[in-house]
Specification:
With 141 residues, the protein is α+β, with helices and mostly antiparallel strands. The chain contains three helices and five strands; from the N terminus they run αααβββββ. It has a five-stranded mixed beta sheet, with no helix packed on it. β4 and β5 form a beta hairpin. 20% of the residues are buried.
Length: 141
């Protein structure tokens, strides 16, 4: 069996394991294995193929880790607009109780409402910043 065939089989096996495990880093390593397969197709010796696999796979892992490190942290689902479409919507608060809670009509139902920590309780329009169970956390507009 040709060296390139073994590298392609290893690449496929690593991708299959990645599908079972769900870690993106195995895909980066599989790119290194594919690079070694291409090096084998080009007639490189086994030590060169090993170096190509190690350098490409390791380089892709380091690049991906660096990319992820520079991304802002993901919002929790309760405050993420892409998960919960209520985030960012507005509602009107008539009055606040002394403990910083209220009730409001929103989407045809009565909701418990609380203020975002540090916000001042004042009647009027408010924006939903988080949904915690059946309670809306709001801030003044």
């Amino acid at each position: 069996m040709a060296d390139s065939t073994l590298w392609w089989l290893l690449t496929g096996a690593v991708i299959a394991v990645e599908l079972l495990v769900g870690t993106f880093y195995l895909l980066m390593l599989s790119l290194g294995l594919a690079g070694a397969a291409i090096a084998a197709h080009m007639g490189a010796s086994m030590p060169v193929q090993l170096v190509v696999a190690a350098v490409l796979g390791g380089g892709f892992v380091v690049a991906w880790r660096s990319y992820k490190k520079h991304q802002p942290p993901a919002l929790p689902a309760s405050a993420n607009r892409t998960v919960n479409l209520d985030i960012g919507e507005t509602l009107n608060i008539e009055s606040w109780s002394e403990d910083g809670t209220s009730t409001a009509k929103y989407r045809g139902a009565s909701w418990n409402v609380s203020l975002r920590p540090g916000a001042v309780s004042a009647p009027g329009p408010h924006r939903i910043v988080e949904v915690v169970g059946s309670r809306l956390v709001v801030e003044k507009l």
